[in-house]
Specification:
The structure is a single chain. The protein contains three helices and no strands. By secondary structure, the protein is mainly α. Helix 2 runs antiparallel to helix 3. The longest helix is centred in the middle third of the chain and has 37 residues. 1% of the residues are buried. The mean pLDDT is 85.
Length: 97
């Protein structure tokens, strides 16, 4: 009886530890990573579009220079953060300091 219990516990441990190695897990992880990259790509393009629209508004006189500079800094900082997150999602090494 004890042998059966030990065997069952051992089998459960092997099943749990081998979970990441099972075929479906890798495909699921890749799909999640691809979805995250796609979301970040869309966010990057949207942020670039915001920056271009801001520049157009400034050039056409719809914004004061001080407002333009402050908004531009904020948008570019957000774009940099998106690019960093995209690099991390793609597994790129962090940039050198």
């Amino acid at each position: 009886m004890q042998f059966v219990v030990i065997l069952a516990v051992l089998a459960a441990a092997v099943w749990i530890l081998a979970g990441p190695l099972r075929p479906g897990r890798a495909a699921q992880a890749e799909a999640t990573r691809s979805a995250e990259e796609a979301d970040l790509d869309a966010a990057r393009e949207a942020k670039y579009r915001e920056i271009r629209e801001l520049e157009l508004d400034f050039r056409t006189g719809k914004m004061e220079e001080a407002d333009y500079r402050a908004t531009d800094r904020a948008l570019r900082a957000e774009a940099v953060e998106i690019l960093r997150r995209l690099d991390r999602a793609r597994g790129a090494p962090p940039p050198a300091p």
